Amino acid sequence: MAHYRAPDSKREQFRRYLEKTGVVDSLTSVLVALYEQPEKPNNALEFVKQHLNSAGQSTADSEALQQEVIDLRQRCARLVEENKELKSKLNEPEDGASTEN
Q1: Half-sphere exposure of residue 82, counting CA atoms within 13 Å on the CB side?
Q2: pLDDT of 23-50, one tens digit each?
Q3: What does the alpha-carbon distance between residue 21 and residue 27 come to, in Å, rounded to a whole number?
Q4: What pLDDT, on the 0 to 100 scale, is given for residue 6?
Q5: In a 10 Å sphere around its CB, with 0-12 CB exposed, 13-18 middle and 19+ buried, how is residue 47 labelled?
Q6: Are 52 and 33 in contact (CB under 8 A)?
Q7: String of DSSP letters for the chain
């Protein structure tokens, strides 16, 4: 029984694609983390899934996103205060308002 094997050039292209897109590095780091576990998890596949999800974002990305959230919350609070001030100004009777005919 003969096994189908992709031509070497296609295999090499696919390997370069995986390296270029960071798949090889991510898989390697997750497998190394699994290897370095003092007590191996009962479900290795679940371990890999969880660590692949967390490997998608770098610490710098997480910090940048956290800072953006803080900035946006502060901006939202300022806009809420500004909105309250503007609404109160609308509800105040105008000083010196005269009714001319």
Answers
A1: 6
A2: 899 899 999 999 999 999 999 999 988 8
A3: 12
A4: 59
A5: middle
A6: no
A7: -PPP---HHHHHHHHHHHHHTTHHHHHHHHHHHHHT-SS--S-HHHHHHHHHHHHTS-HHHHHHHHHHHHHHHHHHHHHHHHHHHHHHHHHSPPTT-----
Count of CA atoms in the C-beta half-sphere (13 A) of 19: 6
Query: Encoding tokens for residue 61?
Result: 């990305």
pLDDT of residue 65: 85
- Residue 10, amino acid: K
Asked if residue 98 has pLDDT above 70, the reply is no
> What local confidence, expressed as pLDDT, does residue 40 receive?
93
Contact partners, residue 52, CB within 8 Å, separation at least 6: 26, 27, 30
74-97: b (≥16 Cβ within 10 Å) or e: eeeeeeeeeeeeeeeeeeeeeeee
